[in-house]
Amino acid sequence: MSGPYYDANVNSYRVVVFEGTRRKSVSSKTREEALQLKAEIERELQNTDIRVAAALDEFLAERQKRGLKERSLATLDYKLRYFLPLEQPLKAFTPEQAQELYEAETERISRFGRVMRAQTHHSVLRMTKLFFRWAVDRKYIRDNPFAKVKPIGKANSGKEQLRIDEARRLTQVLVAAAQKGEEGAIATFCQLLLGLRSSEVLLRKVRDLDDDGRVLWIPSGKTHNARRRLEVPEALRPFLLSLAVGRPAERLLFGGDREQPYFHIWLWRQVKKYCQRADLP
């Protein structure tokens, strides 16, 4: 690329772009406009071969700067990296390929041995559309190839809940296990009695258990309304106190001396284990 050159014949400035053996001129009325145009063309040429992996690194770094929480960032990173072909140039994506990728995802067998649930592949599609909208804003691509891809199927509303008698049976199993010091039983008991999200259980620190075990603080969470103070039922209180006794205030309540909390899958496995012991769904 060269220029800008002033063309007195038409009173304008030209930028010359070379494409192999071909060349073409682009004109602007002023030198300032020509310089801006040249910078934009140079940026587009540099971005022609940017790969998905490199763009993802940049996208995630930007989301982190904007305050996305570490666990949400990890989820975004994991789902986009397994779903998208990382070595493919962004500009090589077509709407047809986008549709094929999504349809294949709806038929994929998950690690639990079942076809991907609608809620899961809907989530992947939302994340992918967000990434490609960002790529359009960055001028890496002109159009979002996933813009017209429609979610398939209907996501379930809510999650399966135990019946009252079933919850009582599970409580008996959890109390018996908690009396033996099984940490997973205490964590599951927290969810059953306090209605906590997995992250709200796993991120709790010793200092969050307050007033001699009668109060559990939730200082932050997934939504703006997550911050709250919960009254701990007497049935749960001694088990939480047993986890906190003699430990520093900033230690995790669950996980012993771990520096990082357990992953959500740990708590999912505990729930499954104790439901099986109670002969429940």
What does this structure look like?
It is a single chain. By secondary structure, the protein is mainly alpha-helical. The protein is built from ten helices and six strands, in the order βββααααααααβββαα. β4 (209-210) and β5 (215-218) form a beta hairpin. The protein is elongated, with a radius of gyration of 27 Å. The relative contact order is 0.08.
Describe this structure in a few short sentences:
The protein is mostly helical. 47% of the residues lie in helices and 11% in strands. The chain contains ten helices and six strands.
Secondary-structure map:
Layout lengths: L1 E6 L4 E8 L2 E7 L2 H16 L5 H14 L4 H14 L11 H13 L10 H20 L26 H16 L3 H12 L3 H5 L6 E2 L4 E4 L9 E4 L5 H8 L19 H14 L4
Antiparallel strand pairs: 1-2, 2-3, 4-5, 5-6
Tally the helices. 10
Run of helices and strands: EEEHHHHHHHHEEEHH
Distance between the termini: 67 Å
Question: How much strand content do the residues show?
Answer: 5-15%
Structural class: mainly alpha
| Main β-sheet description | 3 strands, antiparallel
Helix content: 40-55%
Strand order within the widest beta sheet: 1-2-3
Rg result: 27 Å
Overall average pLDDT = 87
What attributes characterize this protein structure?
single chain, 281 residues, mainly alpha, three-stranded antiparallel beta sheet, 6 strands
